[in-house]
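Before relying on records like the one below, remember that each one covers exactly one chain. Contacts with other chains, cofactors or solvent are not represented anywhere in the record.
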Amino acid sequence: MARYRKKPGEIDAHQWLKNGDHPEDGPAEFEGKIVRYFRRPEPEYDGQTVHDLCGRIWHDHGWIDALEGGHTVCPGDWIAKGAQGEYYPVKPNSSDEPETDPLADARSLLAEHERQQDEACRAEIEQVLAKYGRKLVVTQPQITIVPT
């Protein structure tokens, strides 16, 4: 089981790949109690037609009943249990890491931005120094300007 952070707290989620994967579904040879077989009468949902969103045939999909109708479950989705006991599919995140730090992306972007600013600043300083026949030498933790 994986843990996802969701405002205001955390939720439980289980990854669903095929019938019977959810721990509350029961044996795989029977229809699941949480994730049911995907059944639709319309011809565009026949078992061999490919679902545009995930690239898998509809026969590989599941269905979760909900008050508002229901949710299609693609193989690889995480099945989350809400605060009211309802279940719903959550698409896998881009890093495929179920436990995420909500500030990790912000920290990474900030570090990249600072690195780019440092590089731009250094290039600008080197251009100015080159006009005067000087160059920048950086040896941690010291910066020295020397003749070229």
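Strands lie at 2-6, 9-15, 36-37, 62-66, 69-73, 78-81, 87-90, 134-139, 142-147.
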